[in-house]
Design goal:
about 80 residues; alpha+beta; 2 helices
């Protein structure tokens, strides 16, 4: 479960490598997941989140309090 965004829910996608001779082998498309630490003023502590690049931009736009509320609404423990 390491390639999983806590905010957007982005998970790996699966597909095929297709060689020049058109042989197919399985591959995995991982989201760009980063570990980020944010200060959560309402609780007076830092929270460490695993976010995709899109999730980081979402936190920048809506704020950390709203982002944490969305994460908790999905049932993820922080």
């Amino acid at each position: 479960m390491s390639a999983h965004c806590q905010l957007t829910g982005a998970r790996p996608g699966f597909g095929n490598h297709i060689s020049h001779s058109h042989r197919r082998t399985s591959r995995r498309f991982d989201p760009n997941v980063q570990r980020k630490r944010y200060w959560l003023p309402s609780e007076g502590r830092y929270v460490r989140l695993r976010l995709s690049a899109k999730g980081v931009r979402t936190v920048d736009g809506i704020g950390i309090e709203a982002a944490v509320a969305r994460i908790r609404a999905r049932g993820v423990r922080i």
